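Following up on my earlier message about S-adenosylmethionine. Here are the inputs again, as you asked, copied directly from the submission form:
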Amino acid sequence: MTPQIMMSERLMKPLRLLEYIHSLEDNQFDLVYPRGVRNLSPVHWTPVTVARRAAAFLVREPNTRVLDIGCGPGKFCIVGALTTGGQFTGVEQRKDLCDLAQTTIHQANIPNAKVFSGNIAEVDFSGFDAFYLFNPFEENLETELRIDDSVHFSINLYSRYTQHVAEQLAMAPLGTRVATYCGVYQEVPMGYECLENSMDSRLKFWEKTKHERMVAKPPEAPVTGSKGRFMSRSFDTDERGDWDGAD
Ligand SMILES: C[S@@+](CC[C@H](N)C(=O)[O-])C[C@H]1O[C@@H](n2cnc3c(N)ncnc32)[C@H](O)[C@@H]1O
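Thanks, got it. Here's what our run produced:
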């Protein structure tokens, strides 16, 4: 999937995103993307209904700054920006997906959404108030779930990215909100309380309620489920990696 192929396949059509968002129609919304990216949607991009709920939870007041950790072609940021008063930023390591997100946001003229190209391991979270994760690091563990082979994968990278996010979230102020979709949320450190758990435990809403000391020890990769995906596994809070509550 190269940027050239993506752009030449791309259908330039009027963007009726809000209409599709309000009717919760993923098939319609995803038409904004070229076929190759659209076909990835059922597995890799957040469903509109989930994005709306997560964005509504994360944006507590106008201009809340939300970071989508691994934003893909920007679907969560676009839905969030169009349905709340938050400021949505996505970071994406795959340049072609980042370019597509930027083009889509520009064409749809969405002033409160933007994305940038980069690796989460280089991102300082202090410029954001709330965070969204759709299981971004799982492809380091599951070959079947890789979008493509354009990036490096390893269990060590899984641990490194997960640890970076956990460390950054551990430094965030009380009241910081996080929404996780699928995965085993090892990125969420102790001190965050799960306020809502829905969609068969796939969608979780967290808020930082306590300052907890974090042990500097990288999380071990979780065991995958029988279908080779750990999105359906339901973990208790105590199983969230190796972070120690100190007390
Ligand atoms: C499951 S997709 C979710 C996309 C988007 N957040 C959504 O909900 O529609 C995970 C995305 O994270 C990106 N990603 C994985 N590891 C990353 C990293 N270390 N830094 C930045 N992006 C990363 C992948 O390229 C992929 O596009």
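One observation from looking it over: Residues 1-14, 225-239, 241-247 have pLDDT under 50 and may be disordered. Hope that helps, and feel free to reply on this thread.
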